[in-house]
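Notebook entry, cofactor series.
This is the third protein in the set we're modelling with a bound small molecule. For this one the ligand is adenosine-5'-diphosphate. I'm keeping the input format identical across the series so the outputs can be compared line by line later. Sequence and SMILES below, as received.
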Amino acid sequence: MRYAHEVDKVRAAEQALMARLPDGTLMARAAAGLAAVCARLLPRVYGARVVLLVGGGANGGDTLYAGALLARRGARVVALRAGTSVHEGGAAALRAAGGRLLPPDATGEIDTADLVIDGLTGIGGSGGLREPHATLARRASAAPATLVACDVPSGVDASTGAVAGTAVHADVTVTFGTHKPGLIIDPGAAHCGVVELVDIGLGADLPDPDVVAARPDDVRPPEPGPESDKYRRGVVGVIAGSGTFPGAAVLAAGAAVRGGAGMVRFASDAHAVELVRQRWPETVTRVVEPGPDVLAEIGRVQAWVVGPGLGGGERAEALVGAVLASDVPVLVDADGLNAVSRSDALRRALLCRDVPTVLTPHAGELARLLRVDRDAIEARRLEHARRAAVELGATVLLKGSTTLVAELDRPVRVNPTGTAWLATAGTGDVLSGLVGALLAGGMAALEAAAAGAYLHGLAARLASGREGREAPISAEDVLRAIPDAFRTLD
Ligand SMILES: NC(=O)C1=CN([C@@H]2O[C@H](COP(=O)(O)OP(=O)(O)OC[C@H]3O[C@@H](n4cnc5c(N)ncnc54)[C@H](O)[C@@H]3O)[C@@H](O)[C@H]2O)[C@@H](O)CC1
Ligand SMILES: Nc1ncnc2c1ncn2[C@@H]1O[C@H](COP(=O)(O)OP(=O)(O)O)[C@@H](O)[C@H]1O
Ligand SMILES: [K+]
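Returned structure with ligand:
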């Protein structure tokens, strides 16, 4: 797992470590790591033009010491001072190494630089960048120089990834001690470029992480063994589709088949059932009307998926209600979530469940569930995913440019796979069927949701092609690439 810690935890760990080390040791380690990355990025350090953007805090201090190290190797280093004071030791070191400090209006330096280091704000930054910081951030982001952010791109909230106004768009972010959530969650993540972690020795002082991102060997979907049969591998029941949206049913049922379910039971109205039967003859289908015995009519399953393409109205509410009353894990998606948003009874049913429930909203669906603006959710994804997990009593997978999975008292999972090409109709239906298969296979809710998102994002990347040569993909292409995604796991 890749670990990320919020600012208060980073500060506490730094305090604990600093108490055991001579003054200035941590800043020296951070600066050395930062300078080493910058030196690697430059074709030649000697003679390179390096500009430092320096704020009033320790982030500016790191940057000044890193600039001094580059100046000692022959770089021509100037620092633009934002704010009234800068780190004194860092400024003295830069001067002693032959660098210069200039006022913030010397912005012409930025346009001719080979490399700019952003040391305006780090984990101490809060709110939108003030002036002259914002102007410097904009100018550096637009300049041809390689832009390296010290610890965090200035203007990005390190704990959450929120960006209020202007923020640096870095090519590389050199972060210290541990990742910060804001570096791996959008919109902040989109400002980081490549993130390099520099070890400053915090390891033993860091508590449990707030946010984690899987590496390939962390994703372990269930595998059949010699004793497996279709029932033991897990039967998933999919209730999806309607006269208006039958395609969602075909995609969700297909993803459940490809996701490793021992068997898929599919139930809906006659039209959706006919389409699914034609496309996925391996499913066991049943035409159902909502009623008290609807689940018994469909048959026994180890997990339910309800919602894709169900449409609105009483039918959807009745089917979601039936599924929530069951005693097996349930995934609610799409129109199933909209039904919960409309119905207090369904919301109560959700809270009463004592078996796992996974909800897979996009920002619009979550906005309706939490009764907040969609924009607020996209701006502060981490906060809203956590809040939804608490208020709805479920494992919440929030989809979008960064997919998060939140569960009460557990580190939030950030999905590291995926591609913006996934933003196309029907890919969410594929995700719900895939996660449903993993739930039926016995994975815990958080693991199933995180593994499903990982495989789904990987399938999309495999379908769209290698980086720099991607092509548009359909939901169907993602579905077809699911087996390849499984194959690429370690
Ligand atoms: N604490 C430590 O032991 C270590 C800290 N390190 C560095 O220290 C940084 C944190 O330093 P600080 O706590 O001094 O905080 P920062 O340097 O991140 O930010 C504080 C400064 O930014 C200004 N500021 C905050 N928000 C602003 C805004 N929106 N617009 C304009 N100015 C704003 C403040 O007035 C203050 O001058 C880390 O990111 C890292 O770079 C590293 O040296 C490693 C060790
Ligand atoms: N900008 C983006 N970058 C990466 N993935 C995205 C982006 N936008 C959407 N996605 C992904 O695409 C899928 C879309 O799902 P959803 O919104 O439910 O679509 P639908 O309802 O049409 O199936 C989700 O897996 C989501 O995480
Ligand atoms: K910075």
